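Risk register update: the risk of archive-format incompatibility is retired. Evidence:
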Amino acid sequence: MRTADFDYPLPPELVAQSPMPERDQSRLLVCHRLTNSLKHHQFSNILNCLHSGDVLVLNDSRVILARLRGRNTKSGGEFEILLLEENEVNDWWVMLRPGKRARLQTQIIFRDRYAKITDVHAVVIGANSEGHRRLRFTGTPNISGELERLGAVPLPPYIKRAIPNESMIDFERYQTVYAKTDGSIAAPTAGLHFTRQLLEQIRGHGVSLCDVTLHVGLGTFAPVKVENVANHLMHEERFAISEKTAHTVNTAKKERRRVIAVGTTSVRVLESAIDPVSGKLDAGSGRTRIFIHPPYRFRIVDGLLTNFHLPRSTLLMLVSAFAAPGETHGRDLILSAYAEAIRERYRFFSYGDAMLIL
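Archived output:
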């Protein structure tokens, strides 16, 4: 399939710039695959779509304050830095703008959240073919411990702020209420709609909740730049599955109860950790570069809660694969649902509304 097959027109005013006043006030478009039917709900009513015995799988990764600001100590030029992945303490791969001014051995001094110069420095020690830079930090035992002081919320570029990333609401709302494991540089946004109270109601309904961890990185949000979808290479992302979660999921599958993934990141974890012989979910940790696109036959996931995704993105391709497992026409089903959402003025992307595919 071609990347262009996953394009669609979106009025810019439908890109959500802020969250709803309450998390569960978002809208929910429910898509039933067998009947190709769509129903409109409020997210707070998701309980009506769940059955006692279902298993809801959440990604518990926590977003770090990964966006930093610094100054070239020699020229005085300003840099914006996004932490990507830690190699070891104080040694990180980053996206850095403007990259052409960050040659090897460039020295950077960092500002705090209030734009004041600090004693934290870094030097550019490497670069890769994708234009990312490798930084070695000094002036701190561990840059990870400085992010509360130096870092800003790594909002995606389509969310605009008068002062970038300085809206206090983002510190709370660009994070799920169940996040606990630091490591993501973008939110697993399908989970943003849940409140603690709603999760308790879901438990009380007889639905099992369990966690996996996938630290969202470039593998999730990097754009597809090739014409043929199959030629896209995903970046690796770290994941972990506990023994408890593996047991819960495997028992549900054995008993033919539904496993519903909250977000595409949860899907990628579950579909990455299948034992090739037994077909069961394996506990453990590792890295995945799984790229799910039509046609793909899912082995674990029976339902998917997700947000509305960018045109031509790997996330839209995954959702299209889930709409028609093992076939290629899921793209048509999803783009038709998206067209309906646009007509009904749903809100799109990270702070937008949700979609449940069953």
